[in-house]
Each structure stands twice: as C-alpha cells, then as structure tokens.
Amino acid sequence: MTGWGRLSTLGKICAIPLLPLAYCYFFYAEAEERISETEWKRRRDHRQLWPKPDSSSSFSQSIARQKSARKMRETKARFGRQRAQTGFFRLPLEIRLVIYDLAFGLNNIHLFVENSAGPKMGLRTFSCHCCEGYILSHVHATRQLGCLPHQTLNRVWPDNLETLGLGVLNLILTCQSFYEDVESVVYQYRTLQTNELDTVTLLWTTIPSRHFHTIRSFYLNAKHCDGIKWFTFASSIAHLPDEYRKGLHLLDESQRNKKKTGDMGYWHFACLIISTMQSLQILRVHLGREIFANMLGDSLDGSVINESFVFGPLAEIASKKSGMLDTFEVEVDWPASDENWDSRKCGFQLTRVPPRQTLADWIRDWMAELHGQ
Which of 8, 150, 182, 300 has the fewest CB atoms inside 10 Å of its own CB, making it the most exposed? Predict the structure, then answer.
C-alpha cells in the first residue's frame, strides 16, 4: 500500500491543500538539479579553453625548476659576448632604446584574452590606451580593440590601436642580440596594461619565466567592466583548470596543505600572481565599484562594506614587495567605509574619485540615444 493509501480520510483531507506546495517543491528541486548540471557542463567546457601551462613559464619553472642558476649565467655570458662583437650593441642602451622608439614607435602594450582565434584561449597584444570617459571594447568578430565613448554611438579606433608590426618581428628574428634588445624594450621599458584577471593568469602560465620576471611596470585598468569578465573580480578560482589551481601553493605557502583550492577569490589569486613579478617597480591599479558586483554592498545604497576584500590582497602585494616598488597607486570610485583604509599604512597610495558611470547606465543612455535617432 502506498503512503497515500495508508493515510486516514481525515489525513487525506488535511493533505489536499498541501499538494500544490509539494508539486512546486519537486518541480523546483528538479529544475535546480538541471541548472546545476548545466552549470557543471559550462564550467567543464570553459576549463577546456584554457591552454596548458607553457614549459618555460614562471608557473612551470617554479614547479619543475628546469634551469639551474649556473646554466642561466652561462647563457647570459654567451649572449653578452655575441653583442660585444657588433658595433651597434656597443652603443649605450639608452641610445639603442631611442633608435627603437624612432623606428617602431612602440607604445605601452595592452594585453587581453583572445577566445576567437582557435580552440584555446590565448593572449593578444595591442598598443592602445583609452582616456577617461571611454570604455575599452574588444570586438571578437573583427578581432579589433576599440574605445567606446560615453557620449556618442561612434566607436573610436585610435591610429595607434594596432598589434606590434612585422617590422619588429623581422628585426627580432635577425639575431639573438636584436631579440634580447627588443625583448628588453617590451618587458622592461613599457607598461603592460590589462582590464581583467584572466590576462594576469595567462601571463603567469604562458609567457617565458624570463619575460614575466623582467616586467617593471604593470597597470590594471578596471575602471569599467566589459560586460563579460566583470564577474570574475568577485568570484572564486573554481572556473580555472585543476592544473592552474594546483599551482596555488607556488603563490601562497599557506595553501600548500589545503585539499580544496577552488574557494580562494579570483581577485586574491590575481594579486598573488602580481606579487611574484620579481622586477616590478611601478604598479597602478584603477578599480570601479561595478566590477565587484555586490561584494561591496548594494549599489542602490550609498554605504560601502567589505573593503578588506579589495584592499587586503593589495596590502599583501605591498608587504611582499616592501622596498621594491617605486610607485604603487590604487584608485577607486566608491566612498570610504567604516574600515578606515584611508588612514592605514597599507603600503599603497589610495585615491578616491567620484563614482563613474556604470556599464548598465551607459547601455541605457546608449539605447535611449539610439531610439532617439
């Protein structure tokens, strides 16, 4: 006999009003299970997009320790003798840098993650800069990078919004000495700029270790979210491949014995990566409230909470790089909370600016102007 059959007549009468609620419960439970399965598949597919860590990257070098210090010294000495044999390389480095600037006009380099180039994610470089009041926008269909102004519908394509040209490529393939010089220009004498966290992770896992550790100037320009990557600032690292997360102990020794490494915030993870850049001297971080979603409190309410989520990892960078950073600037567009970060000695210069226009407001104004034409 079923459970319903065992009920008395009075019990059945009392249970009848609850049947719609029971139906709703089982319906939503089944729907939640389907959503969870869909979310699991989405995460699995996303993890498969991430490339395998390059064997020469800082990530892999820290794990495998493939090159000894002695071998590196011998390699540098050999390249030094090769340079000395050529008249051009006898010129002071400052003069060679001026010559490279005149020949190629290398500007500061913007890095972003390219998803449409193939089955795997990868880094792409542009020499570009968006002024205040513009939103950086990447068009996957044309693989172009542009600046969207807040006030008009026209996309701005600055003249210098181009990839590093073939002229540079031809030069660095001429000989090892030219390659090392141009490499020095790119990583030591230019600012690498990005506006999201996936780029920071790929820098750590894909570019050669010698490049990663010669970066002197880094700029995280997250004043505005791009509508796709904004959520990662407030999310965990659960979306990263297992291989990436297993290397977490390389960034933070306290994580070595932890079995679960997916709970760490992605923002904290990215800051740990930045803190391992050995030659870093200039660090600028510009943040907008919207990229942290509701982590700082409801945007409808003027109050701000949980600033430690944002500033805590930055203070860790300052602590680890104590005495090494010439400039460490942090700019945010939200008011101060009760945590008194403005008066703390946290190792970076904190500046607060008026709230910037959010992406949602910008889209609303854009649609209003579009329908008004």
Answer: 300
Percentage, residues of the chain above pLDDT 70? 52
Separation between Cα atoms, residue 200 and residue 220, nearest integer Å: 9
Handedness of CA 90, 93, 97, 98 (dihedral sign): negative
- Which domain covers residue 299, as residue numbers? 3-372
How are beta strands 144-149 and 134-139 bridged, if at all? antiparallel
Among residues 146, 142, 116, 105, the alpha carbon closest in space to that of 128 is found at 146
φ, ψ of residue 180 to 5 degrees: the values are: -70, -35
Confidence band of 116 (pLDDT split at 50, 70, 90): very low
Q: Where are the beta strands (DSSP E) in the chain?
A: 109-114, 122-126, 134-139, 144-149, 191-194, 217-222, 282-287, 327-332, 349-352
Distances (CA, A) of 26 to 2, 33, 87, 190: 18, 10, 80, 58
Give the DSSP per-residue string, 161-220: -BPPPHHHHHHHTT-HHHHHHHHHHHHHSSEEEESSHHHHHHHHHHSBHHHHTT--EEEE
Instruction: Work out the angle at residue 324's Cα, subtended by the Cα atoms of residues 106 and 318, and round it to the nearest 5 degrees.
Output: 105
Q: What is the dihedral of CA 352, 354, 358, 362, to 10 degrees?
A: -140
Give me 97's structure tokens.
Answer: 């840098």
In which residue are the tokens 């996303």 written?
Answer: 46
**Pairwise CA distance, residues 48 & 239, whole Å:** 10
Q: What is the pLDDT of residues 200-221, one digit of tens each?
A: 988 888 888 888 888 999 999 8
To which residue do tokens 């008009």 refer?
152
List, in order, residues 6 or more apart from 109 with CB less than 8 Å away.
125, 126, 127, 164, 186, 190, 191, 192, 193
Find out whether 176 and 81 touch, Cβ atoms under 8 Å.
no
Q: How many residues does the chain have?
A: 373
Rounded to whole angstroms, how far apart are CA atoms 144 and 157? 9
Q: Which of 81, 167, 158, 161 is nearest to 126 (CA)?
A: 161
How many domains would you assign to the chain? Answer: 1
